[in-house]
Amino acid sequence: MMSRFSMLCGEVPALGWLLGILASVTAEYVIGEDLSNILGMDKAPVLFGVLMAFKEPLMIPNLLAYAFIIYVFPAVSTGILTRVPANRLAGRLDHLPVIISGLLHISFLYLIIHFWAGMNDYHLIVIKITMISVILTLSMNVINGYMGEFSCSHPGFMAIGAYTTSVMTLVLFTKSRFGAGPILPEAAGPFVFPIVLVIGGLLTSLAALIVAIPSFRTRGDYLAIISLAFTFMIKSIIENMEIIGGARGLGDQPDFSGLTAVFAWTVLCIWVVNNFVTSVPGKAMNAVRDNESAADAMTVNTRKTKITAFMFGAFWAGVAGGLLAHMLRYINPGTFGLQKLAEIFAMVYFGGLNSIYGSIVGAASISLLGEALRPLELYKWIVIPLLLIIVMIKRPTGLMAFMEFNMKKLLRPRDRGKEEGPVG
Amino acid sequence: MDKLLHIEKMSHSFGGLQAVQNFSLEIGAGEIVGLIGPNGAGKTTVFNLITGVYKPVSGRVMLRGRDIAGEQPHTIASLGIGRTFQNLLLWRHMNVLDHVKIAHYSQVTYGLAGAFFGTPRRNRQEREIEQTSMELLKRFRVDHFALLPVGSLPYGAQRRVEIARAMATRPRLLLLDEPTAGMTPDELKEMIGIIKGIHADYGVAILLIEHRMKFVMELCSRIVTLVFGEIIAEGAPMEIRNNPKVIEAYLGREDIT
Ligand SMILES: Nc1ncnc2c1ncn2[C@@H]1O[C@H](COP(=O)(O)OP(=O)(O)O)[C@@H](O)[C@H]1O
Ligand SMILES: [Mg+2]
What pTM did the predictor assign? Predict the structure, then answer.
């Protein structure tokens, strides 16, 4: 019975799961409110009801029932019921160039996310935070996973991206403390903001040299200290710069990090990072990490490889910082401290080193969990580290370490041969 | 015409220890030269000096007329000197195919833009690299291991991967540091075949560090004997075998014959 069920699930292609998720989202939209009333809750539980479960443990069975009826059942049954046509369609798409079939799937995913995020503002915030976390986790995975440097500079990188982009948009689009009134109309935002983010990212890359150059000679503990010092240095520089608000922070950024912008940057980031880590110069990072002398003897320019890893990772951390600043529309130096570092570490090490899938899974699960536990700050910092410790004991490299991302494999139909293994 | 490799009075010391002294050697294109000597004689240090791991304190290392002493190891490698290591330096988290692919690093011309954005040029070149890598793996009979992590291979196969990886850098001179260390007699025989094979197929010159005299005798046209960092004898295999100084250096070791 059980094995027949998992076999059926194994025959559902990615497209089928997307349909399943759409079914869940629709169920939540259509009957979520009514069902929660029937189950005796005064409102529909947000984020799988984790918060409610903490407040009213007696409600846990009802919450589980809700989660099953709204999320699990529609997703799984739709996936299984539509597997035959979904496989046929996936088979058709499989013959198209992977970029086209990829874009079609991504557009479909975007529509689903758009639908879900449109239900309420809270969904919108959660999904945006999650996607920004994916960018952050991928970028840290490049430096700490693929390149194998124990770097703690990520909050610093984010801060640079967040502040440089904020200053640019505040000057360009608002009547701000920086002088003259708006130079550009807000309507130009969607066109100018990407450029602003790229500039912010590049500035972050430049600053990353401060950490990259010492990494030529030191590894491990020493680099951890240098990079941690970098993070503190950036934080106190910002605290002491009154022009950008100092310790009080900087607010009123224009509202440019919409769902579309964040989604597009996340997809772009996954695509570019995946391109890089599967190329010969990208794989050279692994070679330098595993044995630098051997890499050198095999023509790998080790310094260039390290600099590239740091600057590339920092670029995306800067972009993530910029997106975050224009989503929260208020940042202060405290946002980019040790707590942030711990959060990104948790995502990277939970999901798995050296892995794109791992980064996505780690970022999504930790940020959803963190969000669900947010009103209970204390529990959040008990539950997440505990989870991390368990994963580290069971799987020291994280849930899905050393997994290559392969779009074609991910999207292919699954009904043909039994010989095809699981994804990855 | 310039020799392929021309080393002139190369010396190096570690602190007070004179590891290599006035080492001079010429290797012509396609030659196989043996480098023998007791443990600690400085053989591996000679390799490290040629490949730029250390910079010689004095002397010159000329590769096709160009002084390469003091260049970075990766530069020297891309100029045409490939090597293996005495104690197998493989990349433990990586599969066999990736080992050989990465050794194509200096042949990649698509640049970082190609690496980031998957340009057609990058895709074409990655395909070519994958193809030549698979051919090399086949050549060294490790192609069926292509997607396995290198650490899961039998020892002899790991040695072959290391040579395949070195060949992927397209060397004109290949430095092999005790390629048969720890091998069974069968694996040893296989290794002789492999070295003869790559010499015949690629026309690459080889400098070979080896302890087992039979092995050196069979492969090399010339042998250099190093003792305490100094060359004490150089010549054809037969001359070396009968050289009293060499016999003395190896005194008490039966593997000389
Ligand atoms: N990096 C180093 N630092 C200090 N001494 C070294 C170093 N490398 C080699 N040596 C010393 O140099 C001598 C020659 O070593 P090596 O070249 O490895 O000998 P062989 O390969 O002939 O066995 C040995 O005495 C060794 O201890
Ligand atoms: Mg040695």
Answer: 0.92
Atom of ligand 1 nearest to the CA of B46: 17
CB contact under 8 A, B105 and A301: yes
Residue of the nearest CA to atom 6 in ligand 1? B14
All structural domains of chain B, each given as residue ranges with its CATH number in brackets, are 1-44+57-80+171-257 (3.40.50.300), 91-168 (no CATH)
Distance A220 CA to ligand 2 centre (A): 28
Looking at the CA of B178, name the nearest ligand. Answer: 2
Question: Which residue of chain A is at minimal alpha-carbon distance from B54?
Answer: A293
Contact B51/A at CB under 8 A: yes
Q: Do B74 and A276 touch (CB under 8 A)?
A: no
Residue B182, judged by CB atoms within 10 A of its CB (0-12, 13-18, 19+), counts as exposed
CA neighbor of A167 nearest in space, from A325, A344, A384: A325
| 257 residues of chain B, pLDDT tens digit each | 568 999 999 999 998 899 999 999 999 999 999 999 988 999 999 999 999 999 999 999 999 989 999 899 999 999 999 999 999 999 988 999 999 999 999 999 999 999 999 899 999 999 999 999 999 999 999 999 999 999 999 988 999 999 999 999 999 999 999 998 888 888 888 889 999 999 999 999 999 998 888 888 889 999 999 999 999 989 998 888 888 888 887 755 555 44
Instruction: Among the bound ligands, name the one nearest to the CA of residue B46.
Output: 1
The closest of B47, B44, B63, B72 to B5, measured between CA atoms, is B63
User: Which of B53, B104, B116, B129 best probes binding to A when mutated, by most A CB atoms within 10 angstroms?
Assistant: B116
ipTM of the complex: 0.93
Q: Report DSSP letters for B127-145, one per residue.
A: HHHHHHHHHHHHHTT-GGG
Neighbours of A378 (CB within 10 A): 8
Distance CA B218, CA B204 (A): 17
Residue ranges of domains in chain A, CATH in brackets:
2-115 (no CATH), 120-408 (1.10.3470)
- Residue entry with tokens 């309420």: A120
Nearest CA in chain B to A280: B102
Atom of ligand 1 nearest to the CA of B229: 14
